[in-house]
Amino acid sequence: MNGRIQAFRRRTARLPVSVIIFSTILALIVILAILAPYIAPFDPNKQALLARLKPPGFAYRGDTFWLGTDDLGRDLLTRTLYGAGVSLGVAVLSVVVSSLVGVSLGMLAGWFRGWTETIIMRIVDIVMSIPAILLAVLTVAVLGPGFLKLVLVLGLTRWPRYTRVAYAQTLQVANLPFIKASELSGAGAARILFHHILPNIAGPILVVATAEFGLMILMESGLSFLGLGIQPPSASWGSIMSIGRQYIERAWWIVLVPGACLFLLVFSVNVLGDWLRDQLDPRSRSR
Amino acid sequence: MLQYVAQRLLQAIIAIFGVLTIVFVVMHLSGDPTLLLVPQDASAEMIAQLRSQLGFDRPIGVQYLDYLGGLAHLDFGDSIVQRVPALDIVLSRLPYTIQLAAGALVVAIGLGIPAGILMATNRGGMIARILSAVVVTGQSVPTFLSGILLIFIFGVTLRWLPTSGSGSLAAMIMPSIALGALSMSTFARMTRISIIDELGKDYVRAGRARGLSMAQVVVRHVLRNASIPVITIAALEIGNLLAGAVIIETVFAWPGIGQLAIQSIQSRDFLVVQVIVLLISFVYVLTSVLADLVYVAVDPRIRLVR
Asked: Best of A130, A225, A281 to disrupt the B interface by mutation (most B CBs within 10 Å)?
C-alpha cells in the first residue's frame, strides 16, 4: 500500500502540491454536483415552516439539517448541492458557447486576413469596450430570466478574449512550413483550420478558457444574486446568498455555506489556471 | 505622433458608435421595446398608445437613425417612471458612484502596487508566496460575498462601521474594500510581471556592476520603467470599477448609478438602464484612449519606434 502511494507520488512529483490539492477539490465539487439528486438528504423545495432559519445541526421531527435551513425551512445542504449543478452547468455551457464563437472568429480573422480580419477585430474591440457584467445585466433584463437564456447571454458577451488569442496564435502558426505544405497539397481552409491550426493553438486557448470559467461562475452568481439569473424555486449559489443577505443578522449560515463553496470553486479554478499558464508560457515560468 | 493620436481617436469614435449600435440591438432583442417600458398589467390600448408615442411602430432603420440623432443632442429619452430626462436622473446619482470607485481605486492601487513590488523583488520567498495566495483570493471572492462578510463582521457583530448608506468616510470603507479587491489583484499581478520583465534587462546588471544596491536600482530605475504598463491597467480598471458598482451598491444600499440600474430594471425603466450602460461604456472607451496617449507621452522609446 505504501509502495503504491510512493509510486503515485513519483508519477505526480512534477506537480506542485497546491495543484494536486485544488484539482482534487474541483473534482470533488463536480462529483457532488452530479450526484446531488442521489446524495442530498431532502427534496430541495421541501419546506418546513416550523424549522425556518435554524442553525447547522438543528434536528426537527427526526430530521437533522446538517448545515441549517433557509427562510422557508428548506435544507441548506440540499439546496447548496443542487445549486452546485446549476452554477457549474451555466458556467460550463457558457464557456463552450463563448469559446466556439470566439475561437472560430479568431481563426477566420487570422487565416483570411484582409476585410474579414478588419471587421472581426473591430467588433472585438467594440464588444470589449462594454463591461461584460453590464452588457449581461442589460441583456438578461431585456430577455427575461431562464437557464438557457443565461447561458447564451454569458456566452455571447464573453467571446472576444478567445478571438484575440486565437487570432494572434493563428497568425503565428499560419506561416509555419507544414501549413504551407498542406495548402500546396490541396487542403481547403476548413481542413487546415480545424485539423492543423486548431490543435496547434489549443494550449493558449485552454488557458483563456480556464480563466473565463472562473469568471463565468462569478458572473452567474452575481446575476443570480441580483435576481436576474436563476429564478426561484431553483437554487443557484448566487440566489441562495441573496436570500441569506436579508437574514445576515439572524442566520449567517445561509450566506456562508454557498459563499464558501463558491469561493473554494473559483479559487481552485484560478490556481489551476495560473499553473496551466506557467506551464505553457515560458516567459512566466518558475516565477 | 499626431497621426497616431488621430488614428487612436478615430478608433475610439468607431468603438463608441459600435457600443451605441449594440445597446440599440439589445434593447430590440425582445421584439418590441414598448413591452419593456410598460407595467406588466398594461392594457393593449395603453401599449399601442405608448408604442406610437415613442415611435416604436416605425421601421427599425428609422428608429435607429432617430436614436442616434437623439443621442447627438444628448437626448436619451425620458424616464417612464419619473417623467424626467433619464440622463438627469443618472447624473444626479453619478457623484456617489464616482466617490465609491475612487475609494476602491485607492484601495486597489495602495495595496496592489506595493504587493506587486514585494512579490517581484522577493521571488520564491515566503512573503511572495503569502502575497500570491492573497492575490488569488482577491480574484476568487465574489464582490457581493466579501461585501456581505464585511457587513457581518464589522457592521453587525463588531458594530465598528455603518452597514449601509453614504455620506461619511466610515460608510465608504467597506464598499471600497469589497469593490477594490479584484482590482487590487490585477494591479499586484501586473506590477509583479512588469517589474520582473524589467529586472531581466541589461541596465539592471549595469547598475549593479557600477556599485548600486539592488534597492537603489529598483527604486531609481526599474519602478519608473515598470510603471508604464500599470498606467494602462489603471485606466481600464476605472471602467471595471464603475461596472462592478452594479453589484456592490446593491449590497451596501449605496445610492449611486449601480443601485439605480438594478432599481430601474425592477421598475422596468429601461431608458435609465440604457443611459447607465452607455455612460459607463463611454468612460471605458475614453479612459483607454487616454491611457494609450499617456503611454506615448511618458515613454520616449515608444515615440522613437513609431
From this structure: A130
The chain B residue lying nearest A130, using CA atoms, is: B281
Chain B residues in contact with A266 by the CB 8 A cut-off are 139-142
Q: For chain A, give the DSSP string.
A: -HHHHHHHHHHTTTS-HHHHHHHHHHHHHHHHHHHHHHH-SS-TT---GGGTTPPTTEEETTEEETT-B-TTS-BHHHHHHHHHHHHHHHHHHHHHHHHHHHHHHHHHHHHH-HHHHHHHHHHHHHHHTS-HHHHHHHHHHHH---HHHHHHHHHHHS-HHHHHHHHHHHHHHHTSHHHHHHHHTT--HHHIIIIIIHHHHHHHHHHHHHHHHHHHHHHHHHHHHTTSSSPTTS--HHHHHHHHHHTTTT-THHHHHHHHHHHHHHHHHHHHHHHHHHHH-GGGTT-
Chunked into runs of 10 residues, chain B (306 residues) has average pLDDT values of: 84 90 87 75 80 81 86 81 87 93 94 93 88 91 91 86 77 91 92 89 90 87 84 86 91 92 87 91 89 77 55
Q: What is the pTM of this model?
A: 0.88
Distance from CA of A220 to the nearest CA of B (A): 11
